[in-house]
Amino acid sequence: MPAELLEGKIVAEKVLRELSTALSSLVQRPGLAIIQVGEDPASLIYVRKKVEACARWGLKAERIGFPLDVTIRTLQAKIEELNAREDVDGIIVQLPLPLHLDVEAIVRVISPDKDVDGFHPLNIGLLTRKTPRFIPGTPLGILHMLKHHHIPVAGKHAVIVGRSNIVGRPLAQLLLNHDATVTVCHSKTKELASLTVQADILISAVGKPGLITSAMVKQDAVVIDVGTSRVDGKLRGDVDFEEVRKKASFITPVPGGVGPMTVAMLMKNTVDAYRRRH
Ligand code: GUN
Predict the structure, then answer these.
(1) Measured in angstroms, how far is the CA atom of residue 126 from the centroid of ligand 1?
(2) What is the pLDDT of residues 239-278, one digit of tens each?
């Protein structure tokens, strides 16, 4: 039997419907500020999706664009202004940033209480100590999707391919907090297939289409594809979907899998930030 689809699009819709019910009892609309530098085509799409989702579900989104040659001081000053604004509950800086901007020095300026991406070192530290405040949207969305489908995590071997600050690292902490045995693989890992084939839950977050072949997957594994690459104008994940779905028990499609969950978790974090501040 082919794998059951983990349709993030449908799960996200359910999360957001529940969120909008909760939103109707709030005095004000929670506000999300999105800083974007330059016009990276993928970032433009992601930011548009975030702004549209906010508009649809009753949050107030503000996109603040800067040219590619913006200075770090200008960005930091804008963040400080947003930190002080009463009507802004969440602040995110869309990544990647151009190389001349030090991401760490920018993320650190965001107030940890408004850091709805969960990228500030304080929030990463809290996640690592198993006392999280804001958990990054993609890891949180993956966990939520597993829970929604009653897929157990405790005691399972989760193999993560990719060690980014956005996905791989925080996901490893989150799954560890939920009692998974976690292996993190990356570009220097030797014999990648010998590790992925051991995974009960295999998550790939690299951005290399076709990286995960059927031979790298254990029979009945749960396969989560976080990769998003554009090939001939189409969005492609890291996983050879057609072949791997014959072997896996569950698999995420690309698009319509993890992506919509990330957006939904960002909105949930923004509503949580509002509640914490009021
Ligand atoms: N770029 C890719 N994913 C993300 C994300 O979750 N947050 C931000 N700020 N940038 C991203």
Answers:
(1) 19
(2) 999 999 999 999 999 999 999 999 999 999 999 999 999 9
Rounded mean pLDDT, 162-180: 98
- Ligand 1 contacts CB of residue 261 (under 6 A): no
Question: How far away, in angstroms, is 92 Cα from ligand 1 center?
Answer: 8
**20/153 Cα distance (integer angstroms):** 28
Please name the residue whose Cα sits nearest to atom 2 of ligand 1: 95
CB of 117 closer than 6 angstroms to any ligand 1 atom = yes
Rg of the chain over Cα atoms, rounded to whole angstroms, equals: 19
| pTM for the whole structure | 0.98
Q: Could you list the active site residues?
A: 50, 94, 117
Count CB-CB contacts under 10 A for residue 68. 12
Q: Answer yes or no: is pLDDT of 139 > 90.
A: yes
Taking Cα atoms as reference points, which of 112, 107, 106, 166 lies closest to residue 134?
112
* Domain assignments of the chain as residue spans, ordered by start: 28-113, 136-258
Q: pLDDT value at position 1?
A: 86
Q: Is 228 in the pocket of ligand 1 (CB under 6 A)?
A: no
Rounded average pLDDT over 100-111: 98
Q: Does domain 28-113 have CATH number 3.40.50.10860?
A: yes
Structure confidence by residue, pLDDT tens digits, 23-48: 989 999 999 999 999 999 999 999 99
Q: Please work out whether the CB of residue 137 comes within 6 Å of at least one atom of ligand 1.
A: yes
Contacts with 146 (C-beta within 8 Å, 6 or more apart), sequence order: 153, 201, 222
Q: How far apart (Å, rounded) are the C-alpha atoms in residues 44 and 31?
A: 20
- Fold match between domain 28-113 and domain 136-258: yes
Best CATH choice for the domain 136-258 from the list 3.40.50.720, 3.40.50.620, 3.40.50.2300, 3.40.50.1950:
3.40.50.720
